[in-house]
Amino acid sequence: MRWIALGVLFVIASARCGTACAERGVLVLKASTLADRPLKGLVLTTMGDGGMGPPTDDLGKTRIRLGGDTKPGSPVKLLIANSPGGKELMFVSPWNGEVIVPCFENAPNCVHPVWLTDTKNKEILRNGKALAATTERINHATITKELEQRSALSETQRRAVLEEQAKTIGLPPEDVDRAIRASGAQTTPASYQKGLSAIYERRYADASQHIRASLQPADRGMFDKYVSLGWSEYRQRHYELAKETLQQAQMMRPEDRTVLEILSRVYRALKDFPNARLSMEKVVALGPATAGALYDLAIMQKNDQRLDLALRSLEKARTISRDKDELANIEFVIAGYLIHAGRRQEGLRRFESIKDQLGADRFAANLAWFYAVAEREQEFFEALEHALRVRTLETLLWIDQEVDINKYREHERFKALVAKYPRQ
Predict the structure, then answer these.
(1) pLDDT, tens only, 47-62
(2) Whether pTM exceeds 0.90
(3) What are the E-state strand segments in 95-157?
(4) b/e burial code for range 348-363 (CB count within 10 A of at least 16 → b)
(5) 3-class SS shares of the chain: helix, strand, coil, % to 5
(6) CATH number at 2-118
């Protein structure tokens, strides 16, 4: 049928009785197109110990029994087990198929909308919901990689993310890029899509303005909006605003890894070291315990006066990492922590053995950090000036968070360097 060929579907949690009568522990869904036509034969299931629903009926309805102690307010990831006509479908909104379980009662406020589409469908770039979901998908992949490497992606890396996500939805990356940028350039009032486009283009002040204007308390997409807004505020160094926003997201999904990782850095910038450590401990416990996650945990542990634990985390990270640059950086930080532990000569020897392996630009701020720890003032300022020049925003974020440079904050040379890059 023609409307199925368009491939844009609308799945909506229904509280009507009959085939889909509400029941405790059961998620009731109704599958429809954007034109509000029922979709028959769609089979959905949940990740984990939840069940699989029967194919949607003539009204597009189905029931999925949830696993264990799943309650209203819990996050559940939906999966497509079988689609009508064997089409290759993907979730549009939420883009990753994760929903917050609504109430189990037969009431209108238990409705939960979810959109899907078939891949390779050009309507994705023309439909507002689908374009927003596509932009969220790309932005989330970018944020994840930036958290992992602790710096902004290069243009080459950003292009690689775009190509990877465009391949997932089956459309040319050039078309996807053009559609996202065009949506941000529209003269329409502030909107979530304009905010997402601004994040995509690294216009964080515009992103915050547009996303804040789009917040609606009853909006089912509030979690993703909070994450996008929290990231935007963090990148602008608005740490209190970032904390308030991300804590809202955390209340909705307490175990979301991305939220916890950003929050750990926000807490660190606010000098709330216990919460910074606890957030990263949760990230590592949730898994996977990557070298990057253990490295970040070590920093939070050290700031929270747990140097022995920090050194252990770094040693674990060193055994896991297979990246040459990352390994050199881990060794480099171990050297600095050895100085903190009163093993100065051992730390200096370790630093001298690996300093030539450090990329001058990628680890520019860390080099300044080591010289601060080693009390080599002239070299510290030279390294800091270089870091501010080649990795400006990352270095400013680092300056806001790093306690080991506190002894230089009142130094006139330090003030003069930082003053060249005023907070927006």
Answers:
(1) 877 789 888 888 777 7
(2) no
(3) 98-100, 113-118
(4) bebbeebeeebeeebb
(5) 60, 10, 30
(6) 2.60.40
